[in-house]
Amino acid sequence: MRFYGFSEQRVKRVLHAPARIEEGIAPETIAMMQVVGTSKHPYEVWVMISEKEGKQNVVSAWRYPGRTKPGEPLPAAVVRELRASL
Length: 86
Fold this sequence. Notes:
Helix content is 22%, strand content 40%. By secondary structure, it is an alpha+beta fold. The protein is globular, with a radius of gyration of 12 Å.
């Protein structure tokens, strides 16, 4: 969150009103996304969570420049960055 300048409220907003929900990259995780920015400079805010015993734990939050297609896997560079941080 600190690297991308996300506040706690920004992450909570994605969790409460996601535009898209997909299976996370890490095992047993869920990824949620919101589109933000302007039409000239769109980007997506992604939050990956794990659910255990009814509790949601935020695993990671990141900003993706541009737009991804639903169901499309994330680029290899993003996958490497996430796996390195886990």
